[in-house]
Here is the input.
Amino acid sequence: MAAWTAAREPGEEPWEGFASAHTWIHAEHGWWHLVPRPLDAPAPAGGARLGFEVPRHVLTAYNPDGRAAAEADNRAAARALRADHRLHGLVVLPSLGGHPDGAWLEPGVAIIGLSKHQARALGRAYGQLAVYELDGTIRRVIACDSDHVVAQAVVCRRGQPPTPLPSPPS
Here is the structure.
């Protein structure tokens, strides 16, 4: 999820926050925790590939334009994203993104079946600055309104998100 503005340090560029965010995706057998690492960092023991043979995209509808929004507005936007007609027929998994200790978490969706162009358009429709693209052990932070991309390695492990979890949008 690429809008966790409130978790950024003062003066920090949004891209630094996006690149340092952890992602959790709930798949068939539980939660997977994606830990960002520099592309040139050696892979630690115990990590796994994401198991995705085609790119997946992760996005949120929370905090449009990188500005903290009211909880009611965020929840309404998340409901609208989950019900968006562009997701019909695609695999949509619950996800969370944010600070590794849970100080800031945003619910979102991991989507299987979108192109990069479609994912950026969906992110723009919900006021997002960027979306994530997951491909093997690489995560790309892709700007929704420019060609800016930050690529990084991710280590994928089984693991619950920090608690307390945000309440799911009703």
Q: What stands out?
A: The chain is about 20% helix and 35% strand.
